[in-house]
């Protein structure tokens, strides 16, 4: 692998790492919001429920955006790693038969 290709691969991996880190944080917050939502339902706190539902919708939109970003980076990695074009998850492409 030449230096230019290696640098491009490192950039793509860095992009993927950043996206996955953001996805992890979004999913962690989604779990927290789900707990807050559950508690507001149990307590009958409609105002809190409305706030958590609103935040949940915002988180879903951000998660979808990050997933679109992840899917955009995959072709870069697939090309540099000579993986099958239909590879959607890096783990599938790197699995040892």
Which helices and strands appear, and what pairs or packs with what?
Blueprint: H1 3-43, H2 46-81, H3 90-94
Helix pairs in contact: 1-2
Keywords:
97 residues; mainly alpha; 85% helix
Low-confidence parts: none
Rounded mean pLDDT is 88
Give the terminus-to-terminus CA distance.
Answer: 24 Å
Structural class: mainly alpha
Percent strand: under 5%
Counting DSSP H or I runs of 4 or more residues, the number of helices is 3
Outline = elongated
Helical content band? over 70%
Query: Radius of gyration, rounded?
Result: 19 Å
Major sheet size, sense and barrel closure = none
DSSP strand count: 0
- Give the H and E element order: HHH
Written overview of the protein:
The chain has helices at 3-43, 46-81, 90-94. The model has no long low-confidence stretch (mean pLDDT 88). It is an all-alpha fold and 97 residues long. The chain has three helices and no strands. The radius of gyration is 19 Å and the shape is elongated. The longest helix is centred in the first third of the chain and has 41 residues, at 3-43. It starts with a helix and ends with a helix.
